[in-house]
Design brief:
The complex is a heterodimer of chains A (about 500) and B (about 450). Chain A has about 500 residues and is α/β, with parallel strands linked by helices. Helices cover about 45% and strands about 10% of the residues of chain A. Chain A has helices at about 5-10, 15-20, 25-30, 45-55, 65-70, 95-100, 105-120, 130-135, 140-150, 165-180, 210-215, 230-235, 255-265, 275-290, 295-315, 320-325, 335-345, 360-370, 385-390, 405-410, 430-445, 450-455, 470-480; strands spanning about 60-65, 90, 125-130, 155-160, 195-200, 220-225, 245, 265-270, 330, 350-355, 380, 400, 415-420. A five-stranded parallel beta sheet of chain A has the order 11-10-9-12-13. A four-stranded parallel beta sheet of chain A has the order 2-1-3-4, with helices on both faces. Chain A has a four-stranded parallel beta sheet with strand order 6-5-7-8, with helices on both faces. Chain A is globular. Chain B contains 18 helices and 14 strands. With about 450 residues, chain B is α/β, with parallel strands linked by helices. Classes of the chains: A alpha/beta (about 500), B alpha/beta (about 450). At the A-B interface, α11, α15, α21, α22 and α23 of A face β9, α12, α13, α14 and α18 of B.
Chain lengths: ~500, ~450
């Protein structure tokens, strides 16, 4: 299938509600909005594909292109592995001018694969295409096929060159790659009625380990978590799971639907952020498993565990509540978090003054509206100047957002906490939510902000203001010098 | 808050002794030679610590007391030492620091020195002799430093007939580095002052390479400046331990002083700068306001790394106060505060429960802390506890450039924020593991015995 055809196919996503609402002709155009030169932000398709696939820990990820694609982006994600660290190593063919002019790209790629096999002997290699590789017509798929035969292991072509489209497109192309080349290529011999996959979980900061022991306590077997802390073999056998949970993201919806179509695995969409959501996710997994034939007592055991864990979480949140009560939050994240975090924050006693609904689906918007009662609390996109004004005027006590808007808050001398991908703390599950509230407490009650907001003891020209904060013993002793004139110096 | 206890064992001492602090202060005076009145070991140990810290030749001498001279009285040794130093090194000032040995025996050192100076006036010429009584069995570096500065003022400073509105006396604390003094001086100069810093190690221990061999301290506060301190318009004493010399100066010359307990942190720096603006009658220059803004940004960027962190500090009282109040301003908690000596009034202002103790106490109490803050000897505790050590104070013998690190005023605080944050970031090599995050662990201790997971390094 050509790249163009593949893009059209990933965009025509029957499971996507937005897509369903479109007319036949608009659907054909796909959902990538043309970018505006000079006014575009965000990652490319290569970025999106790499984000999805790179956390697979025991695979060597080889980027076929000039240096910038990998050189400027490697080791920038916070997924964590419990074992192999090969995924964190950066491999690129570093195409040079000469390679491009002489058409050496394919040869170089083959040699690069050989070198990786010799040095690291990984169970599989993912080879990522880039704009230049695609432009000069390197046949990555053919090289991968040849190398796979030669070196006796899967060499998977990931064809999502940056210029193909947005990051979201890259996410989907990556999902398609797993469907086409990886999932179902190995038959497991240890299938149980409790096998599930979690799709779109990245194990950022290891946060999924807050959740995993709870699922395991219920006897649930995680066949594959894609991609967080995954091994190649986990994903290759993922088609034998009994249920899929798709974590708060439409990015991998084609993967979930594809697995349903090909192997009949039911899926649901859920999230591990917030107490209610975590409980709902556990219920969702158990529900699908029981429908698929697991013993029905799983549901009762799940309810018992949920009751226990929620009680513990609220007990641990109790001491934080007085410190958070009434704090006003500007939530600037979008997507599922436009409402899922609202519920959670309100439960902890905070007031969400506004929430962003960018990237939110119609259903997300409806739920956000239900949580905040009034449409004026929802906004699609606020210009940075407006966010700055709101924060500088003290309309919110803290902004929760991604790192892109971090400095708007900080320059407005307002507490800020990263709740998106680049954050530095694990927030998933019950424990993660307690951790999130602790971090909000630290930020919103940090003494740094009152200190910074206190005006300097001088005006804009550096002239001292009238009421200096001076020790008494001092003020009298140099009152004489206040005008800069020294008189009567002897009894100074 | 402070608490003292009587104990019979010090494990891994935190303190360095008083005579060392006094000698250190004399090293900040141009052409001075510290003379430790005690056995030669007293001097040798102090010398080794100085050399390890500064990586410089350090001029310091000994009266080389022995068994017999101790029993019979040390005046002869003192006289011989003073005259020999005068002949060999030709210093402008000999700073006599007594030690536990001679203080235990007990002699009237002041009278002895007065007699020596009187009888040997010809031999001594313009070389001044100043006595600081600094027995090792009391106090610590800050006390010795303070005693030496007070002694110099008492012995040398003359009442002034007139005051110079551009002259400003700055009494620097023992934990000020060369870098701190430079920042303070430059800031004062921007307001049109010609500051006299005492002691001024920025001229003597700043690690330069002179073009000839000089056996005594070179650079530093001049003797003439010390004699005329009273002609300044005001005195700024930094650190509680500089109250004693500031009082001495006020008593001798009537010069009023302002005591600022610390210059570290936004509020503290504001106070100093506002004081200079008031004294000079000039507006705060744009360059200083720019640095203030830089500090504000450093606080914004840095506070993520400080919030909720537990700091374990072991230091001299004023340095302890400086670090603990800095951490409080940044949102970190000082969970352990160990002071070297019990007597300083500043200990009551430290925002933590202060224990007087040693590095053994630090090691025992710092379990679970995120950062140890002490001098280089804290490294053993750091290794055993697996907690990074942030080096402050004296001695720092296992890192280069200690004398140029700064923590004073806007730029010093900015540097300090970055240094501490970087130390914490570098120490976060513990990647999260399934075990470290498992919510089912430690369930019997429900209320959070598990520390928050470490933020991951970028």
């Amino acid at each position: 299938m050509s790249l163009k055809a593949r893009i059209a196919s990933v965009f025509d996503e029957p499971a996507c509600p937005t897509n369903r609402e479109k007319s036949e002709t608009t659907r054909k155009k796909g959902c990538s909005k043309p970018l505006t030169p000079g006014a575009a932000a965000g990652g490319c398709a290569f970025d999106g594909a790499k984000i999805v696939l790179q956390p697979v820990t025991d695979v060597a990820h080889l980027i076929h292109g000039p240096l910038a694609c990998e050189g400027n982006s490697w080791d920038n994600r916070h997924s964590v592995s419990s074992g192999p660290d090969l995924w964190r190593r950066s491999f690129t063919t570093d195409l040079s001018e000469l390679d491009i002019v002489m058409g050496n790209g394919e040869k170089k790629l083959f040699k690069a694969i050989r070198t990786i096999v010799e040095r690291h002997d990984p169970p599989a290699i993912f080879v990522y295409s880039t704009c230049v590789a695609a432009l000069i017509g390197d046949d990555i798929a053919a090289v991968c096929e040849r190398a796979g035969e030669r070196f006796g292991r899967p060499v998977v072509p990931v064809e999502a060159p940056g210029f193909a489209g947005s990051k979201n497109l890259g996410n989907r192309l990556a999902g398609q790659t797993l469907l086409d080349h990886v999932i179902g290529t190995v038959e497991p011999d240890d299938v149980t009625p409790y096998d599930v996959n979690i799709l779109g979980e990245y194990n950022l900061l290891g946060e999924f380990w807050f959740v995993k022991p709870l699922l395991e306590e219920l006897g649930i077997r995680l066949r594959a978590v894609i991609p967080g802390d995954a091994r190649y073999r986990d994903i290759a056998t993922a088609h034998r799971a009994k249920a899929n949970m798709m974590v708060c993201s439409s990015a991998l919806i084609n993967l979930a639907r594809g697995m349903q179509e090909r192997w009949g695995i039911p899926y649901f969409e859920g999230s591990f952020y917030g107490i209610a959501d975590t409980s709902a996710a556990i219920r969702g997994i158990c529900g699908l498993l029981v429908e698929g034939g697991a013993p029905a007592d799983l549901l009762d055991r799940a309810e018992a565990l949920i009751a226990r864990e929620e009680a513990i979480a609220w007990q641990r949140i109790a001491p934080l509540k007085p410190r958070l009560a009434g704090k006003r939050v500007l939530l600037n994240t979008g997507g599922v978090k436009s409402w899922s975090m609202v519920d959670a924050l309100q439960e902890a006693g905070m007031e969400v003054i506004r929430t962003s609904i960018k990237k939110s689906t119609e259903e997300d918007k409806a739920r956000a509206l239900a949580a905040l009662k009034d449409e004026k609390h929802l906004f699609d996109r606020l210009p940075p100047r407006e966010i700055y004004r709101m924060l500088a005027d003290g309309e919110a006590d803290i902004m929760l957002s991604g790192s892109r808007t971090q400095f708007i808050a900080l320059k407005a001398k307002t507490p800020w906490l990263d709740v998106n991908q680049e954050r530095h703390h694990p927030y998933a599950g019950y424990e993660g939510f307690v951790e999130l509230l602790k971090r909000i407490d630290l930020a919103v009650n940090s003494p740094v902000f009152p200190a910074l907001r206190a005006p300097a003891p001088w005006d804009e020209a550096g002239r001292l203001l009238d009421a200096p904060d001076m020790p008494v013993e001092v003020t009298h002793s140099f009152r004489k010098f206040a005008g800069g004139v020294l008189e009567d110096a002897d009894d100074c | 808050m402070s608490a003292t206890e009587v104990r019979s064992l010090s494990t891994n001492p935190l303190k360095s002794s008083q005579p060392l602090g006094a000698a250190y202060a004399f090293l900040g005076v141009e052409g001075a030679m510290p003379l430790l009145h005690g056995s030669q070991g007293c001097t040798a140990f102090a010398l080794v610590l100085f050399v390890r810290h500064f990586k410089e030749t350090i001029p310091i001498q000994t009266t080389a007391m022995n068994e017999i001279s101790t029993v019979l009285g040390g005046a002869d040794h003192l006289e011989e030492a003073i005259l020999n130093i005068r002949t060999r090194a030709n210093p402008k000032l000999i700073g006599v620091c007594t030690t536990a040995l001679v203080e235990t025996r007990g002699e009237d050192f002041a009278a002895d020195i007065a007699s020596i100076v009187d009888r040997r006036a010809d031999a001594l010429g313009d070389c001044r002799v100043v006595l600081a009584e600094t027995p090792d069995f009391r106090g610590s570096i800050e006390d010795g430093w303070s005693a030496a500065v007070a002694a110099m003022i008492e012995a040398m400073t003359q009442p002034a007939a007139r005051r110079d509105p551009e002259r400003l006396v700055i009494l620097a604390p023992s934990h000020f580095t060369v870098g701190d003094i430079e920042v303070v001086r430059q800031t004062a100069e921007l307001f049109g002052f010609a500051p006299v810093v005492l002691p001024d190690i920025s001229g003597s221990l700043d690690g330069t390479v002179p073009d000839r061999w000089i056996p005594s301290a070179y650079g530093g506060t001049t003797v003439a400046d010390i004699e005329t301190l009273g002609a300044a318009c005001h005195c700024v004493a930094i650190g509680e331990h500089m109250r004693r010399p500031a009082e001495a100066l006020k008593r001798k010359t009537g010069l009023a002083y302002t005591l600022l307990p610390t210059l570290t942190g936004l509020a503290a720096a504001d106070r100093f700068v506002a004081l200079l603006a008031r004294l000079s009658g000039r507006p705060v220059p744009a360059s200083i306001r720019r640095r203030r803004s830089q500090l504000q940004d450093a606080m914004l960027d840095g506070h993520f790394h400080f919030g909720g962190r537990k700091m374990a500090i072991a230091a001299e009282p004023d340095l302890l106060y400086q670090m603990a109040s800095f951490f409080a301003e940044m949102g970190a908690e000082t969970s352990v505060a160990i002071a070297s000596t019990p007597d300083s009034a500043i200990l009551d202002a430290v925002p933590a429960e202060v224990v007087v103790g040693d590095l053994g106490d630090l090691e025992q109490r710092a379990v679970g802390a995120d950062l140890l803050v002490s001098h280089a000897h804290g490294r053993q505790a750091s290794e055993r506890l697996g907690i990074p050590l942030f080096r402050v104070g004296f001695p720092i013998f296992d890192r280069l450039g200690a004398q140029h690190r700064r923590s004073a005023l806007y730029e010093g605080t900015r540097d300090l924020i970055f240094e501490v944050a970087n130390t914490l970031i570098a120490a976060d090599h513990h990647h999260p593991t399934p075990e470290s995050l498992d919510p089912l662990r430690n369930r019997e201790t429900l209320h959070d015995s598990r520390p928050s997971p470490e933020p991951r390094r970028h």
